[in-house]
Design goal:
It contains 10 helices and 16 strands. By secondary structure, it is an alpha/beta fold. It folds into 2 domains: about 5-190 and about 310-400, Zn peptidases (Aminopeptidase, 3-Layer(aba) Sandwich), CATH 3.40.630.10; about 195-305, Alpha-Beta Plaits (2-Layer Sandwich). Helix 4 packs across helix 10 (about 385-400) and helix 6 packs antiparallel against helix 7. The N and C termini lie close together (about 5 Å). The protein binds zinc ion (ZN) (2 copies). One zinc ion binds next to loops.
Length: about 400
């Protein structure tokens, strides 16, 4: 099976891919309910020989393509949601929705996955098995992938001949301005972090600011907890299995001459292994309770579970790098030395199916990846021609996964 022409085939799809991407960019939607986006995706898929399942708990779309010969199913993921922020790119297809922006490039992911569906439909006869296109909402903190899994994403019907065709591999691309346009980067093992929230309330006793001995001031206790958390992380966590604890918000009090009753600390906890994730949470509780006890204050510590660590199956990651090299050439493919501390809800899929998450370079040609506005910036923009490489890599992953021996 020849995949050397995939990039040319993807290039033929660039104009329509750019058009779809720009439409999505102008009409960004947030969370798990994306009615406009869903309509655009369904319109773009119209006429393709796909078995489409519309999810009910979210705007998720699962589209299944059956190949020319029987075999297992491979999953390709594209996320569709935007971020609650104002866009300041000045692009002529800038967001038309107040305080919503496709600042993480999910509009490009959706458009590329549609492109891959078109390309793979054209190459259907070469496919031994099925391709499941997962268009998911709610990646930005709303666990859209988890909802789609809970709704039976992986519970696929058998093939027409009655044979089973389980999902045996899952692949996702994420565009980034940290890499030159058209490059692919990935690694085996942990590639993205877990992201949990911590909420700590220090409870003292309110009173007059001139008589702290008659009250119990929670503010210095909270400050001590913030400092002690950083000491706990650097002194107890292995630097080669790292964690980041950042206090992003601290609030207490109302005016200069009142000691408040409570002080509140909120932050994020990142880790790249479940072991460290657990250890850090235990450490936060111990430090907060210990510091509070030292000052005779009360404390409550709560954690909100976020996305788990995103773990690439080592074999799948090597395979994805090999396939990317075959499509794009050796010089455009990078093995990441370490994970990134962002989080991804593709982690839920990779906890169920072996697979690989890859980054796709999208730095504008006139920018340097080291200084280009990053994902989530109000000024970020991407080189749309990188979508050619993304469509080709998505398609190649599916074809090679299903036809591993064909050279
Ligand atoms: Zn994001
Ligand atoms: Zn993203």
């Amino acid at each position: 099976m020849d995949i050397s022409t995939l990039r040319d085939e993807a290039r033929d799809l660039l104009d329509e891919t750019v058009a779809l991407r720009r439409t999505l960019h102008q009409w960004p939607e947030l969370g798990n309910d994306l009615p406009v986006t869903k309509e655009h995706v369904l319109a773009a898929l119209e006429g393709l020989p796909l078995h489409v399942t519309l999810h009910e708990t979210t705007s998720g779309i699962a589209a299944l393509l059956e190949g020319g010969t029987p075999g297992p199913t491979v999953l390709l993921r594209g996320d569709m949601d935007a971020l609650p922020m104002h866009e300041d790119t000045g692009l002529d297809f800038t967001s038309k929705v107040d305080d919503s922006m496709h600042a993480c490039g999910h509009d490009t992911h959706t458009a590329m996955l549609v492109g891959a569906a078109k390309l793979l439909t054209a190459r259907r006869a070469d496919i031994s098995g099925r391709v499941l296109f997962m268009f998911q909402p709610g990646e930005e903190g709303h666990a859209g992938a988890r909802f789609m899994l809970e709704e039976g994403l992986l519970d696929l019907p058998p093939l027409a001949d009655g044979s089973e065709s389980p999902v045996t591999g899952a692949y996702a691309l994420h565009i980034s301005t940290n890499l030159p346009a058209g490059w692919i980067a990935s690694k085996g093992g942990s590639i993205m972090a877990s992201a949990d929230q911590m909420h700590i309330t220090v409870i003292g006793r309110g009173g007059h600011a001139s008589q702290p001995h008659a009250a119990l001031d929670p503010i210095p206790v909270a400050c001590e907890i913030v400092q002690a958390l950083q000491t706990m992380v650097t002194r107890t966590i292995d630097v080669f299995d790292p964690s980041v604890v950042t206090v992003g918000r601290i609030s207490a009090g109302t005016t200069n001459n009142v000691i408040p009753e409570t002080a509140y600390i909120e932050g994020t906890i990142r880790a790249v292994s479940e072991r460290t994730r657990t250890k850090v949470r235990d450490g936060i509780r111990r430090v907060a309770e210990g510091v509070a006890a030292a000052h005779d204050a009360q404390v409550t510590v709560e954690f909100l579970d976020g996305y788990p660590v995103t773990v690439n199956n080592p074999g799948s990651a090597e395979f994805s790098l090999d396939v990317a090299r075959e499509v794009l050439g050796d010089s455009a493919v990078v093995r990441l030395p370490n994970p990134v501390m962002g989080a991804e809800d593709f982690s839920y899929v990779l906890n169920r199916v072996p697979g690989s998450m890859m980054f796709l370079g999208g730095t504008p040609r006139d920018k340097n990846p080291a200084t280009a506005a990053p994902n989530h910036s109000n000024r970020v923009y991407f080189d749309e021609s990188a979508m050619v490489d993304g469509i080709a890599v998505y398609s190649a992953m599916a074809m090679r996964h299903l036809n591993p021996s064909a050279g």
